[in-house]
Structures are given as structure tokens and as C-alpha cells.
Records
---
Amino acid sequence: MTRADVEKVLLEVITQIAPDVRGTPITKATRLREDLEIDSFDQLRVVTELHARLNVDVPESDYSHLATFGSAVDYLLTRLPSSEAHAP
Amino acid sequence: MGEFRMPSLGADMETGTLVAWKVKPGDQVKRGDIVADVETQKGVIEVEIFQDGTVEELLVPTGTQVPVGTVIATVRGPNEAPTKKRAVELAPPTAPPVTDAAAVPPPTPIAAAGAHAAPSPQVVVPAHRPRVSPAARKRAEVLHVALESVVGTGPQGAITSEDVERAATKKPAAAPSGFEGMRAAIAAAMSRSKREIPHYYLSTRIDVTRLSSWLEAENAKRPVTERLLMVVPLLKAVARALTKSPSLNGQFVEGRFVAAQNVNLGVAVSLRGGGLVAPAIPHTESLSLAELMTAVSDVILRTRAGTLRSSELTTGTATVTNLPEPGVETVFGVINPPQVAMIGLGRVVEEPGYVNGALQPRKRVTATLAADHRVSDGHDGGRFLGELERLLQLPEEL
């Protein structure tokens, strides 16, 4: 899975959970909580959906990696099942 | 013969529009069944019935806006014989709009616990049921055009989409709906609260260091689909503390307070794009944390999807507003009438604190209470916050 694939999945998940962000320009620096108003409830839905789609389990202690769109993609790339290095 | 009335789905609601009937004459209904969809300023609500029986007659056609308290259907009790059709009929098409009290009985309280009907001076039952094509009806909803006001030019005077379009360009939008409607609904309820309820406010900072660690450990053990949000143990503790403070848990209806037997805790849910609804979770105090997490998720999703049930908007006994977002430490709540208490929870703050004389990093949350001085005093409120603090120190027992 390439970076572009992960970006696409994350964008799909975010727009599924927060449909109103459609049309908002999203860059690496976009903050999920502050800029897209992903609250703790939505964040848990994002994490649940990422688990379903990418088979990546994001433990609570790693939630800080999901602060921005860019940091979330970086983090997910390291956690993909194909790159087993950090898998639990 | 039971009369089923347009319910009041909030302190502010004066009228509701019947969007769809979910039953037809002859259908068996049980208490709690959803019988109709009603559009309010807070979106479309699934309205439940509060008696068992057989639907006798539907008195209000879909698409009609009627005042709260209007009889919209009749229901025959389980042992009642069918009766002849009711004499109350809508006026013939040529008659002027119905404005006398006879056709629309004065609103009386419905059977729902605490629900109450607000009298409305305005009677908006249409003189006749207009013939409307489904497409035109949809268009009218989109454009917020009241079908009663549209002149039909189709076959037999039926209203067509073009008629609706024409009516929409002629007049400004009728009742505010969508975001404006939501603002109006909040404004009405909160104005009433500030006008009628002598609020008093209490605040305390509660140490949640143990609760946070317990929750972290608990969630580390759980698969992602079963994780608990911090708000869940907080809500459970509030509900349990409320069971010991009857003067904070109930509804103030028709000049007197009625304490509730159980806690139907309202949860303020902010809508993406603006607005706020506070549906209640029945029997919050008796749900396990896992059950409460499921209930909270369900109610948040349905609030945002606009598929709440009438009982969820009318049976709340107290409400929590939880603002864990960065920036909010203390919530100064406004009570959601007819309730008498609003509990506010801010974000978790990390700060130094003393434990047995030693300085340590601690996590704290500021819990506030806005309560109704007609019903309780600061002493009662203080005991409630004390009990809440005590419960939150024992998260494994929640």
C-alpha cells in the first residue's frame, strides 16, 4: 500500500464520518480535531473504521499520532500489516 | 376511546408537522410503538404511542401542521368495541379556515411522564386536504412551502411541483427550519429557562487521575469496537449520584416538581454544522458501562441523523453537557426545562496536586451544577457534587 493509498482511505473515512468536511481543502497540516471538528466520539469512529479497512489497531496511547492528516498518514504507514515492524 | 395528541417534544415546541403515519386504522399498537414521524424545529422525530390498543382513526393527514395537543388519532382500548366514526370532520373545501375551538380540542397533558402540552393560540388545521403529487410534496419540503398556502393548477386542483415553485418565489420561507429552526428552538427553550428558573450554580474540581488510568488499562484490553469513551464513566457516575439527590432529578410541570423514580439522563449532543439536542438515555443508572457506551453511540448517531424518538426528547430527568474540547475548563450550564438540573463537565486538565503531602501530576475535571432554586438549595447540590466525586474515585465499581 502506497502513501497515496493510505491518504485516500483516510480521506474516505473522514468524509464518511464527517460528511460536512467535503469541499474543505485538506493538507498534511490540517488538524483533525481543531480544523475538522473530529471530537473524541468521531475519533473513535475513525479509529474503528481504519481498523476495519486497513486492519490497523490504533491503541489509545497512539492517538496523539492522529493529530494532523499528515501525521496520521505517517503513523498508519508504519502500522500497516505489510510492514510488520511495529505490529502488536 | 383513547385520544392520541400531537406531543410536545420540547419546552419550545408549539406545532408539529405530521410527515408520515406509520400505522393505519385497524392496526394493533403497543405502548412504545412508533406511530408517526413528526417534523419539529429539531428535525424529524419518531413519535411513540403511550397506550395499547387498536388504531381507530387517523384524524390528521400527512403534510399538516397542527398545534401541540391536537388530537391526531383515536385508539380503541384492548377491550373496547369499535365505535362509529367520530363526528369531528375537517371542514369542507369551501368553508373558511377552521378557527373555532370545537374542531381542535384544547391541549391537555398527554400520558407521557412529564410531557406537557403548551396551549397555542394559533390553529393551523387546513380547511381541506390538498391533492398533492408526491414530487410536489417533496419539493414543498425542500423549499419550506406550506402546502395549505399553495393554489393547485393540476387535475382537479391538485398541487404540482410548478405550483410549489411558484409559491416559493412569492413568499418568504414559512416556518424557519434547518439551522435557523434549530437556533429558534434553542433560543425559545433557553429564554424560557432563564426567564422562569432561578438558577444557582456550584462548581468543584474532581480528581480523575485514577479514573483515567483505569480507563486506559481497560481500553488497552478491549478491541477497538468495545472501547469506552471517558464520558461513559462520567455519565454513569452522574446518574448514580442523581439517584441520591431526588430534588435534582425530575421535571417541574404545571407549577410543581415531580421527582423521577429513575434517571433518564439527557446528553447534550452538538450537531456538526451547529445546533444542539439533548436526548435522554432511559434508566442510565442501571446500565453497565458497556451498555451505556452503546446507548451513547446510538443516541449521538441518531441525533445527527435526525431519527430521534419522541420519548427521548420528553422524558429526560436531568442533563449533562460535556465539553471535553480544548479551551473549556468550566461549563456554566443553562437548565433544559422542564428539568431542574444541568450538570457541566469540562476537559481533563493535568496539573500539580498534593497527595499525602507530596506534589504529583494529577488529572482533574471541573464539574458544575446549575440547579433550580424553586426545588433545591445549594446544600442539596453540594451533596450531589460530593457524591459524584466519591463515585469517580472508584471507577471499577461504576
---
Amino acid sequence: MLDTIERFSLVGARESICVAASGGKDSLALLYILNKHYSVDALSVDEGIAGYRDISLFDLKEFCKKYAVPLKIVSFEDLGAKRLDEQDPDHPCSVCGVLRRKALMKYSRGYDVIATGHNLDDEAQTVLMNLLRNQTHLLARQGPRTPPSEGIAARIKPFYLTPEREVRAYCLLMNITTNFAECPNVVKSFRWKVGEALNDLEVARPGAKLSIVEHLLSQTFVDDHDSVVCTRCGGPASGKLCRACKLVVVQ
Amino acid sequence: MNVYVERSDEHKELAFSGSVQELLDTLKINPQTVLVLKNDLLVTEDEALVDSDDVKVITVVSGG
């Protein structure tokens, strides 16, 4: 991971770092390593899924107490939205993803960078999902460091080239406690299906995930979709309102 | 052999000896999705298992 930080110049000198932390294995391993080398704060989003997020938030709170990492927890209600449990949307992962990104973007203002626990598996899945949806313009936003814009922190992904299995193994070896908790919505998601297909491909052809992501890095993609400013929150949008504000207004 | 599978929270008693890879094949589990502990030590897929081993199959894939 430190090699990835160096290879892509993910953290500049004196940059302040906020770590997006759910309490799962990726974010706790990320917090553990970054906290050894930098001064970091943790930011978590409680989307309101009973029996799931409370388990990982417990692990996160214990971790932050043990390693003296300042922690801020925000909720969907803080954005003016309902808890995900109360929304019952047709596509819960899409709604959750939009609101989580919005919360992280909003509450990491003031930091230079926000680090997320996205790993090699996540990135390979996202490449395939964007190709399968013919949304290739989104590939331009998928690098290990997304530059800052209009008060929004730069987003960095230190586990960009680290396989998910290695992150989990690191947690086991370093005694980082992560209780297994599965979101009840996860198996309904397109990402889940793509992830299963990629795991089968990786067995048949070891290195497949890394090849997908290294190929992405070797290409130049252009995001030619116009981006404007959301009239409600001032964040980036493709129309009058950003996707998060559309969801909040509808509720 | 006592095998605990984390994702399904199941304990199984199996008569088995062979490699970790063969155990995962028997359980129909993709090795990309798990890590295996033999007597609480992390092992690779070529590790030999015998009937008296205590085995834990730990989930790798993110739950959300």
C-alpha cells in the first residue's frame, strides 16, 4: 500500500487526511496503516441498516478508541434524507451509494484528501460494471487519486492495487478485529454479480483483476459529460440537481 | 474434521484428509472468496489437512 501511495503520489507533504471508515476490514486496515505514517481523522456514514451497520460501527469505535483516532459519524438524516431502512427503494445499493458519497464529500470539506478503502477487487469490478453499462466516460474518474475541486477534498485509494484477500489476511495477521457482517441488500446488487464472475475468472486466469486495472491505468479516458453545479447544494451535478439532492427532495 | 464456515455461520463435522484446495472444492467455495485457518494459523491452498485439524473458513468478500 505504501508503494501505491508513492507510485501515484497519493499524499502530498503536509496534506490533511480524512479516512472514510465503515468499520469493515478495508477501512480498518487502511486506518491502521495510515495512522502509523500520517495524522488522520476518521469519518463514517451510518446509512441506517439495522443489524448490519451497528456491528461494523462498534468495531470502528473500538478501533478508534484503541488507536486514539478522532472519529466523526454522520447519518443520512444529517443530509435531510431518511434512514435507508425507511426508504425501501427498488435499487437500495444505488441510493445508498449516492447518499454515502454525498455525505463523505460534504463532511470531508476542509481536509486536503479523503482516503477510501477501495481495493483491487472493487476497482476491477467498477471497470467491468462501467463497460457493461456502456458508461466508459466514468472510467476517467476511476484513478487512484481524483483531484480536488471547488472545496471538495481529493479522493485517494491506497489499496488500489491490493487484492481484497490480502487486506483480509493483513487484518488477521495484525489482530485487527473485524466481525463479519453482511449488508442484507448486497446480494441484490449488480456489483455482487460482477464480483462473483471476476472471482471465477481469477481462478481460471490468476492475475485477471490486476490486468484489468493496469489496463485502465495504461489508457487515457476522457469524461466528456458536462458537469454543472447543483442549485441546491453547490456540489457537482449533471443537471439542475445532483443525484443526492434529487433523492432528498423526492423524500 | 471440525470445519467452521464464517459466511453461513455453520459448523460441519467432515471425514476428510487432503489439501485446503480439495476441501474448498468439496465445500464448493471459490478460494478467491475466503482465507483458511488451520488450528488458528493462516495457511495456503496447498497445505495438507488431516482429520484431527480444526479448520476455519473466513470470508474475504466485503459484505456491503
---
Amino acid sequence: MGSFLDRYFEKVVVKTMLLTMISCFVAGLTLFYFHTIAQEEMLRTEISNRSEAVGNSVVRLLETAIQTGIPFDEMVGMNEFLQSNMKNSDELSYIAITNTDGILFYNSQGFEQSLRGILKRFSLGSYENIEKLPPFEISNKYYDIPLKIKNNNIDEGYLHLGVSKKSMESRINDIYYDILTILFVAMVTGFEFFIFIFRNNVTNSFLDLVSIMKRIVADDYTRTSVKRTKDAVGELIQKLNQLVSYTAQNYYQLIKKIEKIKQADASKDDQYHHIQETLIEETDGKTFPATEMPKQDVLQPVVENLRLPAFLLVLAETILVTILPSYAAQFYTPSLGLSQQFISGSPVLVFMLFSGIAIPLSNKISYRIGFQKALIVGLVFSTIGHLLAFLTTGLMFLLITRAITAFGYGIAYASCQNYIAAYAPPHKRIQSYAIFAVAFGAAYICGAPIGGILVENVGYNITFFFAALSAIFCIMIAKRYIVDFTNFTLQKKRETNRRPRQLFKNMPLFFSVFFSGLPARMIFSSLICFIYPLYLRHLGNSQSSVGRIVMIFGVVSFALSPFAARIVEKIRSPQIIMILSSFCIAGSLVLAALMDTVAGASISLCIYTIGAVIHTCSMMSMLENIAISEYDNHTKDTILSFYFIFERVGMVSGPAIFSVILAQYDFKLTLLVMAGVVMVTAIIFSIYSLFNRFQGNTAALKGANA
Amino acid sequence: MKLSSKIYFFVFLTITLTLSLLTVLMHFKYHMTRSELINARFSILAHDMKWVIERGVKLGIELTELKNVQQIIETGIKQDKDVSSVTVFGFDQDAVEPLYQTTPSALDPNLSRHIMESIFSTKRDYWSFEVEGTGYIGINFKDALGAVLGGLYMTYSVDLIDKEEIKEVQSLYLRLLISILIISIISYFISYKTIKPLDDNLLEMNNVMKDYLENPNSRQVHDLSLIRHPDLRKIFSKTLSASKHTLKSFEQVNKIIHEVEKS
């Protein structure tokens, strides 16, 4: 019965979700289509105007020269002069000057001699009364914009500006991709919002209804379901609850009556036994509460509800991550005695440092006030930081605000992880961690483009305000939907018999963190934050192309994380997956270094992301296993914090180390060094795992039994 | 509240939010691309004028002593109909001091501060900003040693330049409204068709439950035929029978208790 009901409601949910997503996508594509037509038209017009502006400046000088008496066909150094003007417009392929008969006098580099005849044919037209000549398609490679050269209002000749069709198309394609990115960002944001709102208002109600119907059919009257909504499902749940309560009350009254009979007359002992036997017989297999009223189900912590808050938490940060370096650079003055690069990177460094400090503190705070409250405290700090940044006037003030935000972010981030660790169902632990990874991936995809667009349109300060809004929205959701146990303060942190520093002596943890987790994080932060963007720029990509290629990381991790988590959950030896994924990461870096092309870099980024996602999932699985084997000695949160702290260390130290190598050598060597680091640590980790696999598994088994 | 209305509301909310976000981002992107291209176009004219003036400066002649600057900017402004004025400026301590202007006017101290900030914060070879409907685009003059001695800025009417953009933005938002409207109507019918049967079934189940709760111990047989979905009907019927069976068994026990009490 349950499975049918589950399937029935699931079908309704899936149908509705599909309907919404398809509607959104179709409408989005329609808007995209019409908008790109307008963008394309604007782009063509403005590029032509810009080219004309270059042409006008040349024409003005030429006309001055002609008026001073220099013969039009005997000017010296004209080809070089035309060439120097070309640099003002990226789309210009040539500038050529002809007389009114179409005879070519001067031309810049890039002018194809085959075009001479076409220019001659052009001059056959009658343009005396036309002030602005229309652009025309001179060949399948160029558009030609002709401008008149006059001497005392008499046409002396024409200046031809050749606009490359290819570069125009490339600009238009860039715009297409940028708007497509925006479409994707809007869809992901809408999807996250819809999943959350639908789960909390419809899906969970269906589950509650299924649960109470299942219980009644199984003759279990001990509990009533939660009535979350006021719709038809909520009403039905309420009525079924009334039925359960009524039945439980009836049962309780029967018991009371029987007790009364026993107490009233001891001679009726036989009859009492007869009634009791009848009751037992009649209610055989049925379950009733011990009290008059059945227990009401309380809202259980649902880790899936973390997805939207986690998305908003990371979004508030990723909105700022790409704009902070340029914002900090504005405050650069040589009197500070620091390099401009250091000033640009300082907000990121401060952020990493303070979030690293906050993570271990988060554990203490969480166990004192509860995960939900700790999350809210972190978010409040984060919001205050963003709001203060809105008022920033100098570098020091900006760094202080970043420190406050980072502290809050660290607490909130670790609280989310601790919440998952505490409440994830045992068979879905890694999948629950993947929820966080998916939220991170989605926020990573959305944050950077939104931040870039916001900053250009509303400025830095208002962008901070938007980040604050995202954090405030996150607080509201956390307050309403993140359920924690209400008697949390009574659930003291489990006493353990060892101090956290003794975790260094735990060899599986030591090797996992220092020979797999830390190097992977070092590579991640260096590669995604600066090496890949710089490398792609070095390969000749525009800034927007770089953004799009790096977005592969967000898209692949967003799509792959849930599947990777499911697979890793089923595999008993996560260390094997960790080793394989480390080799995959190293392989992707070698590929990027050896291929040295955009396609190679894109493929390698794709492979890298697959490796990184699988590595993260298997690392979490490994930590789970270690937590089980260390049950008597350390809590899981202590073990997770241990990893998170060194994860942060890796995130900070990676860029610092590899930027020095990149400054000294080239991209190829840096990528190979990175691959070498991952490879060597993976080999050490595999040797250790090979010798300790049996022991580790036995220990884990013992822990699990315990 | 009907479930179908509620679900439809969520669908509508999501579609509206997603499409609005998409439209706002597309609007911003359009503005960014256009501003960038327009500034690049103006910067060409600015470069053109700068090239001539800066040559004099690099020869060591003071900006104030250059004789042809006024003529250069007067000719320059005629090159682009969108440019409203051109000003060549130097510095008076930490403020901007206009030296030559096509349209003479006093410089507001706030504007002067704004220009000073832009001069030293720009990463491009020109700087630009907008204040109260006027766009400013400027370029710096440097001496032979690379020190900034002054510059020139051009102004243009943002409203005039943005006329075309406003047209596109208006049609962008109009398209958004039409899309929301069309998609809402379509999704209403689809969701109505998808959720309506469940809605009817839930309504009927609620009615039956209401009847049943009014007198749970009655032997009345409830008509479940209006629950159209056969499996759902079967499950609901099972739920009711289970409850009825339990209550009936209580009745049995109650009967015996009564008999005992009577005896």
C-alpha cells in the first residue's frame, strides 16, 4: 500500500516539477531569443559607430592636410599612420583610402589586394548628395564602411573601414554565451527556490499523509502526524489525526473501565480476566499509546532543508569573490608599502584566515546553543560584515568587514556540516553531504556572473548590500525551516577520552588528511581561483570565455555530486576511490600541461571536476569510517573539524605556493608540479592504504559493532 | 484551500521569479555591453584630441600656454553629435581646474572630487561615470616622465544616448509580462489537469472522513465511489475498515464490560 501511495504522490510531485521547469525553460528561451536579436542589432550598430569614430579621426586629419595644400595622392607615411589608427578598434581589419574613381592610394596592413576591384566598382555609384554612405558587404570576410574625404565641400575620395565579420560574429557569440549563462543562472536559482518551497509545502505533507494512513492500516494508534499545511492534504491529515486520537481515547477508557471493575469487586476476578483476554484477543496486533492521547509527531530535522540556506550562504560569498580583488585594488596607494597584487588578494587572505579560525569554534558554539542557532549566529555575523562593507571607505575597514563576514561564514559553514553529521540518515550520509556540495556548485555557478553584472550596474557598495540580503533571506529560512531538537541544551556533547590533538596519532586520519585531502584542496583553490583563469587568458581567450570555461567546474560538480555520492555510499573502501580520484586529478593536470590548447584545458577541467567531486565524496565517506572506528576516543564533529581546518590550510597555502612557482616558471611547469604533488601524495597514501587496509577495515568493523 | 490552487501558486511564483531574475540580469547585461561600446567610441574621439594636445605637453609647454587647444576641442566636438561639451583641465592643488571649455561653466566641487577619484582609480586608458543624467568620459594627459598633468573630459546626455536602450528595455519588460501571462495560463490548465483529479479525490476523502468522524461507531457504509482513482479508493477504504474494525472490537469488549457491570 505504502509503495503505491509513495508512487502516486511522487508522480504528482514529478509532474508538477517537470511542468514548472519546462514552462520556465520555454519562457526563458523565448525571452533569450528576442533579447539576443536586440543585442545583436545594438552590437552591430555600436561596432559600426566605433569604427566610424576611428575613420572620422583619420578623415579629419586628412582633410586638414589637403586644405594646407598637400596633394592627396602624395602624402608620406600614410600606410603607417593608418596602421597606427587600427589599434583603436579591435574589429577593424583594414583601412584603405581611394580617390573618387576608386583608385587605391593608401592602405593599412590586412588589406587584401583582391578587394581593389570591388572598391573601384563602389566608386561608380553616385553619392554626391548622400552625406552618410551605407555600409556594404565587401566580401565573405568583411563589411566595408565608406566615409567621404572632402576638400572645401567637394568629394576628394573615400576612406574605407573594413570590419572583420569574424570578429563581429565572435563578439555576437560572446553575447550569446553570456546571456545563455544568465539564463542558466536564473534557471538554477529558480530550481533551488522551487524545490525548497515545494518540498516544505507539498511533498512533506504528502509524506505525512502517507505515514498516518500506513499507521492506521497497520493498526498503530500511538502517534498522530504533523499538520503542516492548511490545504486539502492538511485537512485530511487533521481528520485522520482526530480518528487516531478518538481510537486511542476509546482504548484508554476501556482500560480504565476494566481497571475500575477489578478495583470495585475482587470477586469478579474471573470476569476481569475474561474481559482482559477478550481485549487482548480483539486488539491483537494493534498498538495503542500508554496515555489517553497519542503522541504527536514532532517536526524532524530534515537535512534536505539545508540545501537552500547553504545555497544562499555560499551565494552571498561567491557574489563577492570575483569583485573583491578589483575593489581592494581601488584602495591601493604606494604609501602602504605593499604591492598592488598583495592589496588585491588581501580580502581573500583575511577571509580564509578568519573562516579557518571560526570552524573549530563552531563546534563549541553548536553544542552549546544548537546547530540551528549556531547557523543563525554565523549568518548574523556574516550579514553585519556585508552591511558594514556597504559603508566601506578604506582598505582597513574593508578588511575588518571581511574578517567579520568570514568569522560568521566559518561558523555557519561548519554548523551546516555538523547538522548533516548529526541528522543525516545512516544510509544516506554521503548523499546528504552531497546536498551541500550541490548547493556549493549551484552557488558557484550563479554567484560569479551575478556579482560581475551587479558591480557593473549598481557599484560595489550596493553589491555588498545584495550579499547582505542573501544572508538575511538565509536567516529567515534557517529560522523557519531548519529544525533542531528543542531540548538541545540537554544533549551535551558526548564525553570522549582523548584530546583533539591526539588525532594526529590516528594514522588513517593523518594520511587521509595530509596525503589526500590537503593536496586536493591546495590544487582546487589554486586551479579554480587563479591558475585556470590565467592559463585560459594566456591561451588567448577573452575574459567572458574564461568565465564560461571555468563555469564547467560548477556545472559538472552540480550535476555529478548526487550520483557520485550514491556510488561512493555503496562502496565499502573509500580509500581506493580517493586514490583513483587523486590520480584522475593528476592526470587532468598533466593533460592540460601537455595539450596546451583551449580544448585541452576544457577537457582537462572537466576531468579534474569529475575527480574532485568523487574525491570530496570519498573523503567524507572515509571520515565517516574513521569516526566509527574512533567512536570511543573522539566525536565525529571533532574529526570533521580536524579535516575542515586543514582543508582551509590547503585552500590558503595552495595559491600562495603555486603562485610563487608560476611567477618563477611558466604554466606548463606549474601544472606539472601540481600534478606531481598530487601524484606523489597519492602514491604515499596508496602504499599506506595497501598495508593498512585490513587493519583499518577490522577497526571500522569493531567501531560499527560498538 | 485547494491543493491545485496552492500548487499553481507555487508554479506561478517560481516562473515569475525566475523570468524576472532572467530579465533583470539581461537588462543589466545589455546596459553593460552598450555602455562599454559607447564609452569606447567616445574614447576614440578623446584619444584623437589628446594625441595633439599631449604632444605639446611632452615638449614641455604648459597646458595653459598652448594656443590651439580651444580650436582642437571646438573641432573635436563636431565629430560626434552625441557629445555635448569638451573640457580640458589641469590641477589646482587637489582639485580639477577647467582650462578650456567648449561650453563655459563653473565646476561643481563634488564633480571635481568625482573626476579626481576616477583619474586615479581607472584601470583602462580612459575613465567614465554618470552624474544626474550626464555622462562623463575622460582621458589623462601625461608629461614625458609619465606624471599626470591634467586631462580632458567630454559630457553627453545620458537620456539622449539611452533613448534606444530605454526602447529595448521597455520591450524586454513587456516581453516578460507577456511570457508570464502566457505561461501562467498554459501552466494553469496543465496543472489543473494534473492536480484536479487528486484535488477531487482529496475533497471526497475529506467529506467521507467528516461523515465518519461525526459518528465513528455507526454501521453506516460510506460511499467511496466518488474517489475516482481505484487504488487510492482501495487504500482509503482499507484505512477506514482498519479503523472501523478496531472500533468494532472495542464495542465487543464494551459489551462484555456492560454485561459484567449489570451482573
